[in-house]
Specification:
Elements lengths: L1 H15 L14 H11 L18 H15 L4 H12 L14 H26 L9 H13 L2
Length: 154
């Protein structure tokens, strides 16, 4: 019984590992060049799957991008040149981690601004709840009117 459970756990753990979608015919002969290609393709977004890298995607477009990336590397282009080529062609959306710039400032700073705004709102609300109102003593006229009301009910 324990062996079945361990086998099932091992299978589930293996199934949870990300599987690279790189086909054997895409792999470069030079292991160092293939490693560069894999590192670059892990940084690029599949335009079909969107939140998956082209290295992990089985989409035909991702395969085409992997092949194009490898072709450009074998031509002797640097990593930056290959990335710039793909960004020029497909836009910055292809980058899983967009570059920091004025046009992406909201993307990078937005979560922090929202977090600070939330903390400010919660702190202000708590402060408002903890402020105790101090009741001013009744004036002579109010005391007299209150006594009249109380005596009038008897």
């Amino acid at each position: 019984m324990i062996w079945r459970i361990l086998t099932l756990l091992a299978f589930l753990c293996a199934a949870a590992l990300p599987a690279a979608a790189v086909q054997p015919d895409e792999v470069l002969d030079d292991p160092a060049m293939e490693q560069r290609a894999r590192e670059l393709s892990a940084k690029l977004r599949c335009l079909v799957c969107q939140n998956q890298s082209i290295d992990d995607s089985d989409a035909p477009l991702a395969r085409d991008l992997r092949i194009r990336l490898r072709e450009r590397l074998t031509k002797g282009e640097s990593d930056e040149q290959v990335i710039d080529y793909l960004v020029d062609r497909y836009g910055e959306f292809i980058l899983l981690q967009p570059k920091m710039g004025m046009h992406t400032l909201v993307l990078w700073l937005g979560p922090f601004v929202l977090l600070l705004l939330g903390v400010f709102i919660v702190a202000r609300k708590r402060r408002a709840e903890t402020v105790k109102t101090v009741e001013a003593p009744l004036s002579d006229e109010e005391t007299k009117r209150l006594k009249e009301l109380i005596d009038g009910d008897r």
